[in-house]
Design a protein that fits this description.
Keywords: Chromatin regulator, Nucleus, Repeat, Repressor, Transcription, Transcription regulation, WD repeat. With 833 residues, the chain is mainly β. It has 11 helices and 52 strands. The strands form 14 sheets. The protein has a 5-stranded antiparallel sheet, with no helix packed on it. It has a 4-stranded antiparallel sheet with strand order 1-30-29-28, with no helix packed on it. It is globular and about 95 Å long.
Length: 833
Amino acid sequence: MKLIKPEWIEHGPKESLSSLHINPEGIRVALAGKYNAVDCIRIFRLASILDETYQTQSRLLCRIDTQCPLCVRFAYTSDVLAVASRQNVLLYHLTSTNPNVTNLQSSSSFGDFPETWRLRSSLSSGHVADILDIAWCPLNDRYLASCSIDNHICIYSWPSTTLTITLRGHTGLVKGLAWDPTGLLLASQSSDGTVKVWSSTTWQCEQTIKEPFDGCAESTSFLRLDWSPDGTMFTTAHAKNNTFPVSACVIRGASTVDAEFVGHRREVTCARFLQRILLINGRRRCLLAIGSKDRTLSLWLTSPRQPMCIINDFFASGILDMSWHLNDNDGLITLGICSPDGACAFIIFNKDELGTPLTRHEMEKFYSDMYKVNISIPTKTITNGAPMTNGNGHSHHLQQSTVKATLANQTERRLGDGRRCIKPLCIDTHTPAPTPTPSPALPPPPPPAPTSNSSSTPSIRHMPTIPIDPKPTKGVIRSSTSSITLPSSISSTTLFPPLKLQSNLIRKINNEYELRTEKSDQFYILSCINEKTKLVQWKNIFQSPLLAIQATKNFIAIVTLQETQHCSELFILQQQSGLRLYSNIVLTQTLASLYISENTNNIHRATISLIYITGLLTVFDITRNSMTCPIIDVNIAHLLPPHASIVDIFTLNHINSDTVCLITSTGHLYGFDNMLKHWTCLFHKHDFVSDFALPSELTSSGPLSTLTKSYGATINDDIYQKTLYSSPNRDLLVSAYLETQIHRSRILHSSREYYFWLTSFVRFLASSSLDDKSLKLKSILDHLAEHVHSTPTNSNINLMPLKTKDEYQNLLNECLIILRNHDDASTLVQHYE
């Protein structure tokens, strides 16, 4: 894989790109956006981007100035470029090529270019507002679809360019379109929180999918979705899983989301499939690229879903559009990407690097067998063309066609303002055109290297390589250091390395017992050995190899690897007898880590934590007679910076609530807020103020204090006090810390500490020199009075640690007692008394 980011395609404060498309032959790439603050479309020679030996003068083929071009798409079967310009679809035709032109003035739309593209049609009937996306019907260009911010989809017939029908059904801006490979279905995604699938035979809506898209599309300019080349599914742009942005996968004919591609930190704007099926280890798989506003590109394989690689910090802004191309001659696969910052990039995969693409004939046979339709994938003939050269005299991959003798005699003259005046000729339309003869193809140029003068070098994070095994194996990722097969990840990005299978696992339990595994015939035996007597206390047998073992005084957690089913299972055993308390719990993804911690208040209770390679966490809370799952597949990847690790995961049990806590090697302690379904930092080593830096009379007691003292004991008190008392913002630092502690007490449902920290905050504000202390005190007292004199809703009760009016009344009285000792707060005291 090679990454090219051409710096000579200018970008800056006056430049932006909204769309990119590579034509089916891989000769041209069209870029739509602003150049020198002028709306235009620039068509470049793709080979000049991928090969640095091309001369500068031969890079730009044509420039077309037009208003607000938001999308460009080349036709499949003819040299036609469709452009979304305001509420019109403009159709430009390639009318002539000028191979001898080398002196280009790219800053102007006038002057000579190697190619001439003329406006032949303007599809203005249908939309009344700006068009955001357009799509040709695959393979035969029978229809051209466009969608707009007027909430409608227009279908035009080709080549008649007449409006066939206007599809109405969306109630919001329609931001993306995609035809299935057979042209029988059209998918659309809108800001109304729905994805609809339309039939091209009846023009009726056949599917409406709502669940993962509701209320999540307003923040994106485009929602460019795409169908897989086998037509079995389509992948959407921005969707949400809880609060995390994902790309949703919808199976053909289904009304719900089948799976999700997760891992991006911001909204997904574009999804693009390579429109050829790949053969990898005898399996048919599809290649998908996903671009996001987080400036990250992720590449995936399907069937099963497997992440290939992630490229971070690709551009200064997000990713808006992408386009694939497969060169049948040399097997190179190219992916073009563009960004609103005006930059574009290209990724090149060498032949067989991703697998073997099906040939055109094999794709046609696949569609015939799969969908019972006869589809011919045409090889387009380049008309009005001449061999393109790179400026060094070497011909490019254009097919050469002859021009009629009558056209050779046609004359033209150039006006003073740059316009061309061409004398018309009468052409005999009954004379058959000569058969075009292709020019001999040259060997492919050496793969280009990324430009060294790039302003920002993207960081590439490689994923497990695609296995090339003569014996096809389903869903297998092979490691270079182990021949053991591991289950494939499902709908996520690999962030943590998977656990490796070991021949013999040994675990010690408090230096009293030892757990040992061994293989006997086709079975795996777990033995518990007494360290003092060296005698086997009990044995248990499993039919699958043991991947991980963790234990406490009372419980043993075991994960086995089902090699035939490509999945893992969780078993929980009683430590004293080896009895299976819970068994055969199938894990949803590939395991990266297994943790178990004993409850400090109840030794007959434990917390089992499973971390998957995708950065998701699942937690089980177990006793001998019960088992609950307080956390299911919650993302923790954002809690761990590079080179950080997890120290421990446990459940903090206190009076009325249980909180799952996570400690990282960076000195952070997080608690999971079950109400908000988010992690909250309960302690970190960079707190400017801690319990240790406070006077002894100003310390709390409760779960928050216990956590702080247990896991923050290594903090140097002198450093924290020095930082606190020497800072010119000392009062603001203390105020922020006390407010944070109030919030943390609420997360832990600790009423005693909530009472303590709130009264400490009032005491601090009353004696501080902050200018806005009166406003803060009034806000606190208003909040307490509101709970005293009104009936809070159930949701408010659940969010607050104090449950009754009497508790709030006592807290309000305590705050007023504190304020009575301060003369400048006498007005507040009188008001609330």
